Amino acid sequence: MKLQKLSMLTLSMIAASALLASTASLAANYKGDFKGEGAIPAAPCPQEKGLSDGFYLGVGVGYDSYRMRQNVNLTDSVGNNMNQNPALNATGWMGGLFGGYGQYMTNSNIYLGGELFANLSNASTTQTVTGSAAGGGAANYYTNTSGNGSYGISFIPGVKITNNTLLYVRGGYIRTKFEVKESTSTGFSSSNNNWQNGWNYGVGLESAIYDNWSVRTEYTHANFSSYTISASGTKVTPSDNQVMLGLLYHFT
Fold first, then answer.
1. pLDDT tens for each residue of 71-80
2. Quick one: which H or E segment has residue 27?
3. How many folded domains does the chain comprise?
4. Whole-number Å distance between alpha carbons of 1 and 9
5. Would you state the pLDDT for residue 131?
6. Are residues 23 and 119 in the same domain?
7. Does residue 47 lie in a domain region?
8. Going along 185-212, which residue ranges are E strands?
9. CA distance 210 to 220
10. Does one domain contain both 27 and 60?
11. Is residue 115 located within the same domain as residue 187?
């Protein structure tokens, strides 16, 4: 009887020892897995999207605000002299296409690029000015002025401020079509279309959003040379402020 009890006690101790060893082993394995040292691998971190260099194409939409200084000096058929200098503000929506090439300098965040662009705009304004009369009476002067479309080329240097964000400046040549329609209450009328050369410059920010796609937001200002409308002698001095949002596809 005593021997049987001893055997049972021995077997119980052996079983308890085996259970304790198994529990300790499982605990050790769980601890290793918790620390990423066991069989369960750690989840990989997602890679941040970066801006690509190389060739790209894009579309843009925005808003134009042309300032048109018109120096009017008209004498109509009854001797009324119009000598005015109105400043017109032709505003409207614009849309366009652009494409270019950019390259990051070796082992540097410095970016150099060049771009061609073409835009269409519906910016326009209408104004009436009452003129002084040299020979008695007064004539009204009516004008409708618009900026219809542009094309040009720009140099675009910049600096990558994060892996997916580029801060850049723009400078270059722009050519824009202006239309000025003039008339007076005494019967004079003329319509003039003129392509003018100018310089545009500005600042923008571009950010990667998905794979080869990025977006940009940009402000530019353009100064144009003055020109004179031959039919009336009116001198026009235009400039433009533009804000634009663009979507780009990079081919690399």
1. 887 766 666 6
2. helix 2-34
3. 2
4. 12
5. 61
6. no
7. no
8. 189-210
9. 26
10. no
11. yes
